[in-house]
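User: Teach me something about this protein's shape.
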Amino acid sequence: MPTTAPLVTVDCSIRHYGGEHAPHVHEAHAQLLFALSGRMELEVEGRSSFVDTACGLLIPAGSRHGYLAPPGAQMLVMDVPGMAHTALEKVRRFQVPAAARCQPGQLANDVRLHMLLQSPPLLPRRGVDVQAIE
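Assistant: First, the predicted structure itself:
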């Protein structure tokens, strides 16, 4: 029986972070990431955001981003070719489904990618004007 190769090769890995990383760009791939433990503060195209175990972030290919994470932060990161799907074209925070929080290899990458792309979006993080509250 013939088999077909997946149309998109998705690299899914666990990465350990700590400290600050200068802004950089990935021209060839988008990234979807969320925390397995800890938290990461990010700046994407000049806007602040964060990821933790409940919310993830889609960073489109070509988007300038940097981050700050406490020592020991553990992230699940999916590198997806930038033109793989139109849903990868905009920065988006999303709710991480419980079923997607498993280790790489416990869930097929294409299934995890589909889950994350279909996951409900979350409101972007916004600054608070403290003087307007007073």
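Now, about its shape. The longest strand covers residues 65-81. The chain has two helices and seven strands. If you'd like, I can walk through any region in more detail.
User: That's plenty for now, thanks!
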